[in-house]
Amino acid sequence: MEKRVLGRTGLEVSVVGLGCNNFGGMIRSLDTEGARKVVHAALDAGITLLDTSDSYGVNGGSEITLGEVLGDRRKDVVLATKFASPLNREKSNRYNGSRGYIMNAVEDSLRRLKTDYIDLYQYHFPDPQTPVEETLRALDDLVKQGKVRYLGCSNLPAWMLVDASWTSRHHNLHSLQSTQAEYNLISRTAETELFPAMHRTGMTLLPYFPLASGLLTGKYRKGQALPEDTRMNMAHFKSGLTDANLDKVEKLIGFSEARGRTILELAFSWLACQPIVSSVIAGATRPEQVVANAAAASWNLTAAELAEIDTICK
């Protein structure tokens, strides 16, 4: 599988990554053996980036599961996790980027993941109560201690990326190299403000929801009933089932089928054609899904095809 560098670093990641939010008791959760099959299928397909968070699953369940299933194959992966999200919302709803919180959180993640270093440690959601300099100084110390190799973030607005970049340069601190945001053929709002900020700071994107919560799988068609037991039956995701989005989906299906491809291949390959993208984060609950996702990013879209897609999705 194609490898790309992360931000302004020498770290290479597979162009398709595995999102591990389905492990350990979150959304449609897999048990340890189910997760083992998915992870091993990902590694066998050439996927090297595994992305999780201490808040995925019950009591850090996703990290615990990854720690169990990786074993000797830990050395073969780029292991990414996150901090700041509350692990127990009954006690706190605060996103926490304070020094004290980070120093405890990283030790807990290392223990759950059964590793002595994290390849990519990501600030999950911004904490408005903590100055960004405090957060960055704590993360800089973790890099110097060897507990973390590279730094990233997720869900930070554009102005915070620029502020964090300036703060890192001004104080000679290790800087954020990547950010995660929702980005796909249906949701392209990141292009307006986030992309210019990323170009200015040298950061690269790890897009999540590449299939728009299932809209870009071809399972949801205009005028047809929703399939049973799918994410779109959950109220949070159903909001995406608008006539406008379904019209786009029908046009994108037609575009793909006219070229002997599927809309799944189009969704991944279009993201892979964006120079700012390092790796496309996609979850999976079955090994065959991982194999399909890994193979889906190989369509080299031409400039004319990209322009036609823009016309459909404008």
Automatic annotation (TrEMBL):
Boundaries of every NADP-dependent oxidoreductase domain copy: 16-312
Pfam families, alphabetized: Aldo_ket_red
Protein's UniProt keywords contain Oxidoreductase: yes
InterPro entries per record: AKR, AKR_Detox_Biosynth, NAD(P)_OxRdtase_dom_sf, NADP_OxRdtase_dom
Alphabetical list of SUPFAM superfamilies matching this protein: NAD(P)-linked oxidoreductase
GO molecular function list: oxidoreductase activity
Keywords assigned by UniProt, alphabetized: Oxidoreductase
A GO term from the CC aspect: cytosol
PANTHER family: NAD(P)-LINKED OXIDOREDUCTASE SUPERFAMILY PROTEIN, NADH-SPECIFIC METHYLGLYOXAL REDUCTASE-RELATED
Protein's name according to its UniProt entry: Aryl-alcohol dehydrogenase-like predicted oxidoreductase
Highest classification ranks of the organism: Bacteria, Pseudomonadati, Pseudomonadota, Alphaproteobacteria, Hyphomicrobiales
